Structure formats: structure tokens, C-alpha cells
UniProtKB/TrEMBL annotation:
It comes from Merluccius polli (Benguela hake). Keywords: Carbohydrate metabolism, Glucose metabolism, NADP, Oxidoreductase, Signal. GO terms for cellular component: endoplasmic reticulum. One of its GO terms (molecular function) is 6-phosphogluconolactonase activity. Pfam families: G6PD_C, G6PD_N, Glucosamine_iso. Residues 1-16 form the signal peptide. Pathway: Carbohydrate degradation; pentose phosphate pathway. This is GDH/6PGL endoplasmic bifunctional protein. Residues 228-525 form the Glucose-6-phosphate dehydrogenase C-terminal domain.
Amino acid sequence: MWTVLKLLLLLAVCPAQRGICTEMKEGKETHQAPGHVSVVIVGGTGDLAKKYLWQGFFQLYATQVGSGHTFSFYGGGLSPDAQATPILFNILKNVSCSSDTPVERCALLRDQFLHLAQYRQLKTLEDYKALGQHIQEQLQGEGMVEAGRLFYLSVPEFAYADIADKVNSSCRPASGAWLRVVLEKPFGHDLSSAQMLASKLWGFLKEEEMYRIDHYLGKQVVSNILPFRKVNQKFLEPIWNRHHIERVEIVLKETLDVKGRIPFYDRYGVIRDVLQNHLTEIMTLLTMKVPESLSSSQVVLHNKLQIFSLLQPVETKQAVVGQYQAYNAEVREELNKTSNQFSITPTFAAVMMHIDTPQYDGVPIILSSGKMLDERVSYARVLFKNDVFCVQNPHSIHCKPKQIIFHFGHGTLQRPAVLISKNLFKPELIDEEWRELTEHKDATVLGLPLSDFYAQAPKVEREAYAELIGHILSGRKDCFISAEYLLASWGLWTPLLDSLLSSYPRIYPGGEENGNLLDFHLKRNEIGYVSDDVVIINPEQMGGATAESFQVMQGKFRGDDMVSSWGEELLVRLAMDLEAAAEEAVSEGGAFHLALSGGSSPLALFRRLAEHHCAFPWRETHVWMVDERCMPLRESESNFHSLHEHLLQHIKIPYYNIHPMPVLLNQRLCVEEDGGALLYEKEIAHTVNNSAFHFVLLGMGIDGHTASLFPRDKAHEKHGESMVALTESPVKPHQRMSLTLKAINNAHRVGLLVMGKLKHELLTQVSRVKDLPNKWPVTGVHPVHGKLVWYLDYDALLG
Ligand SMILES: *[C@@H]1O[C@H](CO)[C@@H](O)[C@H](O)[C@H]1NC(C)=O
Ligand SMILES: *[C@@H]1O[C@H](CO)[C@@H](O)[C@H](O)[C@H]1NC(C)=O
Ligand SMILES: *[C@@H]1O[C@H](CO)[C@@H](O)[C@H](O)[C@H]1NC(C)=O
Ligand SMILES: *[C@@H]1O[C@H](CO)[C@@H](O)[C@H](O)[C@H]1NC(C)=O
């Protein structure tokens, strides 16, 4: 039987831990009556316990020697005692002392720690009852006053409620002593599952008894963001606002993949795994109001929570997502999926947020994280505007970026530190636990030499879990996630996660090879990838791709070229291609003949052309119609009318270069003997070299029609050699005038723009079928000498 050894007072007390959560101020929350503490790690032989928890509790034990507290430690698990006891002791033998502990003292501490620990099977309610009884008997036997009981649940999320139930019913201490139950993320999967878990737990535990861990809050630089802001308030107050801050970046880059963790990771992805918790915590610490005093957990938690009510909702266009190339092969392997399974779980994401206050209005706050990137580093930086114009000596310090970098770890610096550009201000040290960083002179941080910064670093580096374990004992709830905060955070992220469900991530190769593929740019209210590259991946690398998604990767659709991306990006690309085609045609023959369709898809394209393409050679461009509804042009449903609204009236195009279709002749609409179609055909023949348009832009209807060529109209047979024809639509207005397949296929270049989820089903069908222009007129588009390019957005392509 193990017995509790009374602590030896001759062992000196270690220096108190510092940081926001650890200031041992007088106050209700931190004032602890000394007494006996029983620590139970449920899952005590698991990975986390092995790697961090026992080491953390040993450190706690070592620092608490002489404080008046006494301890006993229990490793709990599902296995029987005989089997698990040796495993537990192998782990416990591994704990190490801090480097400044004398060897003899360390040996003594470790020996005592081992004597205070035991394994207990914790499976049934009886097991928990027996534990509760054991603790009670021990307290009585040794005549000790109980301070509290700490249960650390290092088990999967689904087991929380059941264990909490058992702890509540059989392990509660007598009144006067505390109960603290520690939980590890994940805390739910979205807002409703987090709510469900929270209310289940509230049936067994009071909110004040729950300690939800985010180990980032135990990182020394993270826990000192507020103290740094506080001690440097006189410098920061005037510049911590939208007039001076250019943007805020919170970044966690990793080089590893997620092999071995796929069953967990594939259900979560990078946003749930990193952004919703760690990066959001840091975001609130950077932007919250700094309290008058940091010693009250309640005020700190309140100010943190306040940020959520000021954040603007995050829209889909404020996020970009990516997935490393080998991910799907790993999913297939670890989840035993068949080869047509295709996961779109993101392994990289960047999200832009805005806080809607006069202080931060318009300041982009970027949260970004990814697996398989070029380096392992995590930092947050506040980048300030620099209004200095350097005429000479661009390397002098006042020409450089002005920034504050909270460097959490790794990177080339390989250590936690806070860095302030020398052209900003000379900061105060956070407290006596921090020192100026004078070594690492050759290191660079975000591309700048360390000598550009005033840098400070903790004198002693501490492991996050050890820090947090200390905070549990001192009851500093501000180092943990409150239920309100958790639900507010899920409330912020859940709508974005839902909207990204159908979003196709950009595939990246991983490591250095990513090059600039994941770079993104910020606009006022959206972010997007900088490069338009479509990554081409072969089937072996893709592993799990289905036939359709494979065609995405190939950049081919129905044997023709395909460009595919997000809707907005797709239009950017199409507009660029149009401008390039225009320039080429004008330089070769002096004119550009462009035929445009009606419909809603191209309207955003027209606006983009009008607003962003100032160099487009409109003076040399002739605009033709692909099709027209038989109605007066001034009516808003006329294709020409919407073309005029969205494009023609905004550009400088000569009047005589505009060619509406003659649907109204002799005061009547589209009458065969008025010869409107023939008239248009002649106008084309007269103006366009060989009647070959340089660019014909088409769309596709959900019935497979293109231009105004409808299924079952047998249009292409009836039209023979005509270039323009009157056609019949199944929907009103029925009468149309349209270019024929003959005219379309005579063009130098045809672009087929297909956007939106509604088109997905047909697109999937069309991707597989042979040419059946009677059934799907769009399959009859094959330029004889020219080239067809499909412009497909991800909604249409992937549904
Ligand atoms: C003990 O530590 C060593 C070295 O750090 C490690 O290789 C070993 O796996 C650890 N053993 C246990 C049981 O944790
Ligand atoms: C704990 O269990 C008791 C019954 O043993 C119950 O009355 C109580 O509501 C439970 N929950 C909390 C938070 O104490
Ligand atoms: C996949 O199959 C292997 C071998 O049949 C099995 O051991 C493993 O548990 C399976 N994994 C999953 C997630 O079903
Ligand atoms: C007209 O087309 C022919 C052949 O298609 C070509 O040789 C000629 O250069 C073109 N003329 C102009 C003015 O583009």
C-alpha cells in the first residue's frame, strides 16, 4: 500500500510561475486554503498523459512542496490493475526536474512522487465509488484536511458525460473542498453539438467546476499578450486602432501531415482543429479591451467574450481553403474507403475577420493554418502602417515594416519571444521573468534580421501543460475556456463551416513545392488565392478521386480545355482570357469580333470587364449577340437590354460597333418573311472576316440548351448552312433568334461558362455522354478550326 508522505519543509519553494493566469494576487479566486489534493488522470496511461500530463503534475508537485498542500495521484484507466500498473510506473519513472534542480533533490522529489501515485481501474460506477471511498479513508487515516479533487479527463469526447456522471454521483468531496474536472478539446463539432455536450455536463458538474483546456493558453507568449499590452499601454494606446494598424495576422504553420490521425481529422479539418480554438483565443487576446487589472479572471473573461458580439459574421468569400495532395490517398488507406471516395476536408485555411467598432473598423484580421507547409512556426503579428517615403537608403530602419510579433515558438528563432520593430517604440519588459533577447543575432524573423527588433524572451521556458496544470490548482479560470466563450466561438464559426461544406479546396503538393500556390490577397471584404494555377495531378497521386473530380484535376472536360475555380476567380480568369483574345485579334487584324449570350451567368463578367479592364480595346471591338428574345430591345427581359445595362453603357465603345439582333422589323417581332435572321447573317458576313467570330461566349441551360438552341428542336438539322435562325424555346417568350451551331463552330474560340449548383447534375451527365445535339444541344459545340474552353465554377462542377 502506498502511503502519503508528509511534505518535507526543507525543500525550497520554486519560483512562482508568471503570466496573466498566474499572478498570485490576493483575491477570492486565487486564495486557496492549503490541504490535501487528490489528482485523478482518467486515461492516465494514454498518449497525452504519457507525453505531457504526468510531467506537468510532477512539476506542480515539485513547485508546491512547502506550500502546505499535500497530494496523492491516481492514474485511471479501463484495464485491470495488474496489467496497467507497470505501464503507469514506466511512464512515471520518466519525469524530469527543471534544469536548475540539484541532482539529489531531484532524486528525492521523483521518489516521493512515485510513492504518492497508484493505478486504479476506472470502468464501472463501483470503481468510482471505491475510489471515492479510498480517498475518504485516506484523509481520515492520515488526519488530513481536504483541499480538493482534480479529475483530468484525458479520454475521447464521447466519454465525458458518462465519467462526469460517475464523478458527480460517487466522488464529490465533502462541502468546503473543491471539485475540478478538466476537459480537453474537442468540445463539440459545431454550435449545436457543443450546446448539447455543455448541457449534458451541466447536469453533473457546475460550470465553475469545469476547466476546458486550450493548451495554447498555457504557452508563455500567449499568456503574456495581455500583460505585454498592459505594461506598454502608454505606447500602444495611441496606435492600437484602425488609423495605425494595417492588419493583424495569426498564423500556425506545420510541416507534418495527419497520417495516423485521419479518423479524427477527416471529421474536423483545420478550421475546427486549429482556427476555432487556438487562433480564435489569440485573436480575442489581441483585440479585447485591456482590463484595469489583470488579476480578476471574471473581468478578463468578460472582455474576451465581448469581442464576439462585435465581430462581423464571416462569409464564404472571406475564406480560402486547401488540401495537401496526398491527403485523399491517406483517407482511403486509414478509413478503408473505396477509390471513388473523395474527401474535401481542408488541411489549410485562411480566414479574414473584421471587428465592427470605431477602433478596428476596416482592419483585416487574418487567421491562417495548414499542414504540410514549408516550415513549422506559430506567431501573431500586428502590422502597422508606415507612412514614411524613403527617397534613399531603403534599408534604414525607418523605412522598414513597423510591427509587433508575438512569436509563440519554432521558426528560425526556435523559441518564444516578443519582438517590436525598432522604428515603433522601445518596450518595457513584461516583468522580471522576461529578459532582453541578446543571442540568436543571425536569426531572421518573418524575413527581417533580429537586429531590427527590440526582443524579449522568458528567462525560463516552460511547457504549456505544466503551466496550465498550475493554473488549475490556483483556480485561474481565465486560462481556460468558459462555456459562454466556447458557444460564442462555435456561433461564429459554424455558419462558415456550413457554407464551406460544398467548397472545393485548392490542392497543394506540400512543403517547399507549394511555392506561391497558397498565397492569397486581401480586399476590403474578401480574400482569394493570388495565382490562378490549376494543379494538374495524375491519378496515382490522387488515389481516391472519382471520374468527375479527376477531370477537374486534369484541366480537361469532354476532351476540351477546362478552367475551374471559385465563381469569382473564374470570372477574373475569363475576363483576362477575353482581354488577351481581344489584344491578339486587334494586333493581327485591327478588330475584335465578340459574340455574347444572354442569361444571368455573364452579368458579373460584364461588370468586371467594365470596371477592371481599363485597357480593353473597346474601340476596335465589335459586340454581336449570340441570341435574342423576340421582344423590343428596350424591354428589360431583352438580352440586349441587359447587355446594355451591365456593359455597353459603362464602356467607350463606338455606336457603330454594336450589333443587336434585328428581332423587330416592319413593326413586328420575328416573322419569318421579314428575313431578320438572314439580315443578321449578311451583316456578319459583311463585317466579320470569313464570318468567323474571334470569341463566342456561351452558357448552358439546365435542359442542355446553349445559345437559343433547345433540345428536340432538331435545330442543327433544320438550320443546314444558315448562320442565324429563328428558334422555339419551351419557356416564355417562346420565340428566339439565335446563332446556329454552324456559326458557333466557325469561331476562333468558344467559351462555355457554366456556374451554380443547379447545373451540377446536367454537367455530370454531359461529362459522360457522346455528342447528342438533339438531346443536349451543348454537346454539338465543337469549333472546326478553333478552340473550346469550358469555364466551370466549383458549384457547378462538384454540386
Ligand atoms: C521515457 O523516455 C524515453 C526518452 O525520452 C522514451 O524513449 C520512452 O518511450 C519513455 N518511456 C515511457 C514509458 O514513457
Ligand atoms: C450531481 O448529483 C446529484 C445527485 O447525486 C444531483 O442532485 C445534482 O444535481 C448533480 N449535479 C450537480 C451539478 O451537482
Ligand atoms: C481498416 O481495415 C483494417 C484491416 O482490415 C482494420 O484493421 C482497421 O481497423 C480498419 N479501419 C477502419 C477505420 O475501419
Ligand atoms: C481573314 O482570314 C483569312 C483566312 O482565314 C486570313 O488569311 C486573313 O489574314 C484574315 N484577314 C484579316 C483582315 O484578318
